[in-house]
Write a structure and sequence with these properties.
The protein is α/β, with parallel strands linked by helices. Bound molecules: manganese (II) ion (2 copies).
């Protein structure tokens, strides 16, 4: 059988159109760039997970560039495949996924951008779809949490990968910057801190009082010392909470949880982070029955080298799709 013949048979066996364009039909460097080479669709169509971009970096404190992440992640995701070797799962065979384009933003206004994200993500949720957002800087997550919490009707559990706590106070008189979304989410009652967890946290901090907010709200933060100091990575993973069907979860993945050697293209890199492999294993170990939505943020293509960071983001997106597959 020719390679092309195999592709045609595969398409024939699949009962939906939401399937990536095969690299055997069109080489992976060709074609119009969409997330995972998936079809572009509108929300009235019947599919399970929408992927969209939020090209906003108006709230960063150091390096800009995350506004270019959605385009770069789309381009890099051409290398994505559908079969997960470790999970023995062909995710696109059973899960219908589409690229729905980008949420519009106002480049110089966080507040106006929040309104646009809330409106956009609410429409996605009202069409009974889960979603993955490719940010954007980490300020954008607050807007997602507002709409997902409103739809869920109860505070969410947040699974948060980051080098930073993101509970920091206002900066230059601005409340809504990329290091403050967790503080606002707790103060607004969007997340339940006691069932949430932060993974990959490390210094340096401005001072030891930076963790006071976490302590006051019983929000667990797993430092790199805790992760590397565990008997094994598996034993650390086993210590993470498991979430039942009745608990809606939002997963927010700040790419700077990875070590700068694995993700140099980011706004505020911090040495001593997770390797891409450790991050994969932690994501694969998560027990989440109701992952409603997720985002991947802080990828800054202008500071990247050979697309390492964008490729890591694509890999995280694939793991998240696999987590969502379990819930459909
Ligand atoms: Mn962050
Ligand atoms: Mn961070």
């Amino acid at each position: 059988m020719t390679l092309f013949g195999q592709y045609v048979i595969h398409l024939y066996m699949s009962d939906h159109k939401f399937f990536p364009l095969s690299g055997r039909e069109m080489p992976r460097f060709g074609g119009i760039k969409t997330f995972f080479r998936l079809p572009v669709a509108n929300l009235s169509e019947d599919f399970d997970v929408a992927i969209f971009g939020v090209p906003f970096d108006g709230a960063v404190s150091y390096r800009p560039g995350a506004r270019f992440a959605p385009s770069k992640i789309r381009e890099t995701s051409s290398l994505g495949r559908g079969y997960h070797f470790s999970r023995n799962l062909s995710v696109f065979d059973a899960l219908k996924v589409a690229d729905i384009g980008d949420c519009s933003v106002v480049p110089m206004s966080v507040e106006k951008t929040y309104e646009l994200i809330e409106k956009f993500s609410t429409k996605v949720l009202e069409s009974k779809k889960k979603y993955i957002s490719a940010g954007g800087d980490h300020s954008t997550t607050l807007a997602h949490l507002r709409s997902v919490k409103a739809k869920a009707g109860k505070p969410l559990s947040l699974v948060h990968f980051d080098a930073h706590l993101d509970t920091y106070p206002a900066a230059w008189g601005c409340e809504y910057h990329h290091g403050a979304f967790v503080r606002h989410a707790i103060n607004e009652g969007l997340i339940d801190p006691k069932s949430s967890v932060q993974i990959g946290i490390r210094g340096p901090l401005a001072g030891d009082s930076d963790v006071n907010f976490n302590k006051e709200h019983s929000l667990r933060y797993c430092t790199m010392d805790e992760i590397r100091g565990a008997t094994s990575l598996a034993s650390f993973c086993a210590s993470l909470p498991a979430y039942e069907k009745d608990q809606p979860v939002f997963l927010s993945y700040d790419i700077d949880c990875l070590d700068p050697s694995c993700a140099p293209g980011t706004g505020t890199p911090v040495p001593g982070g997770l390797t891409t492999y450790e991050s994969q294993k932690i994501l694969q170990s998560l027990k989440i029955e109701n992952l409603v939505a997720a985002d991947i943020v802080e990828v800054s293509p202008p500071y990247d080298q050979s697309d390492i960071t964008a490729l890591a983001a694509v890999d995280v997106m694939f793991e998240i799709l696999c987590l969502m597959r379990k819930n459909i």
